[in-house]
Specification:
The chain is an alpha/beta fold. Helix content is about 45%, strand content about 15%. The chain has eight helices and seven strands; from the N terminus they run βαβαβαβαβαβαααβ. The longest helix is centred in the middle third of the chain and has 29 residues.
């Protein structure tokens, strides 16, 4: 998919790895100047160098999306170096990979940690970027949620709550910012195969693990998605042609939430 993003500056949070990295590469490949913001400075630096080596214009910044002062300073630096930010991708997020528990056993520390990054981080980053977009009369914001924000999942109460918050926050932002020319949309990925989830999906023999096979039996396409497939959805939402898409939740999950169930 090719669109014209020449002259635009895109900020991608959590842009060092996974969906964020694929999104940053997609933005850059279509002409945007990309600012990668990530808590992982080393991985962000690698992403920056690889984009530069490919002839793209990019820079990496270390920051905590849930720290308002850090995000305001990063936004200031990006604008000072590259000019106004016209695209914001709120992708940074975390979850509990192991030791998942029901709500009555769930760790309050994990609850605060996940809500802080996955929901508050979207709020604070948007708050740092949106005024500039409003002042110029336009911009695109895409928030990365999850199918966990649309359907109930067990043993992930903080992640489910945070992503449900991102879904409705995106709609609220669309209502508030739309009259200013700033379009806000949301992408809800399903099960995506990243470095972080590779061990979940694949066993030692290279085949799907038993847990992954059980999960994917609910997905009509029968496979996990790729970070690039999410990046294509994001690219569509920031493309010039998507100028009347505002407040949408684009589900990219292989049909999981369409209601597909196994025969019992």
């Amino acid at each position: 998919m090719k669109v014209d993003l020449q002259g635009q500056v895109a900020l991608v949070t959590g842009g060092a790895l996974g969906i964020g990295r694929a999104t940053a590469e997609s933005m850059a490949a279509n002409g945007a100047t990309v600012a990668i913001v990530d808590i992982n400075a080393e991985a962000a630096g690698v992403a920056e160098q690889e984009l530069l080596a490919a002839g793209r214009t990019a820079a990496a910044y270390q920051a905590d999306v849930a720290d308002a002062a850090q995000m305001c300073e990063v936004v200031r630096k990006i604008i000072e170096r590259f000019g106004p930010i016209s695209i914001l991708i709120n992708n940074a997020g975390i979850n509990t990979a192991r030791d998942r528990r029901p709500i009555h056993e769930y760790s309050p520390d994990d609850w605060q940690r996940i809500l802080r990054v996955d929901l508050t981080g979207v709020f604070l980053t948007s708050q740092a970027v949106a005024p500039g977009m409003i002042a110029r009369g336009g911009g695109r914001i895409v928030n990365i949620a999850s199918v966990a924000g649309l359907v109930p999942l067990r043993l992930q109460s903080a992640f489910v709550a945070a992503k449900a918050g991102v879904v409705n926050l995106s709609k609220s932002m669309a209502l508030e910012l739309g009259p200013c020319g700033v379009l806000t949309n949301c992408v809800a990925p399903g099960s995506i195969l990243t470095r972080g989830t590779r061990d979940l999906f694949y066993g030692p023999d290279g085949a799907y693990s038993e847990k992954a096979a059980s999960l994917l039996s609910h997905v009509p396409l029968g496979r996990p998605g790729t970070p690039e497939e999410i990046a294509y959805a994001v690219l569509f939402l920031v493309a010039p042609g998507a100028s009347y898409v505002n407040g949408a939740v684009l589900t990219v999950d292989g049909g999981w939430t369409a209601g597909f169930t196994r025969d019992w």
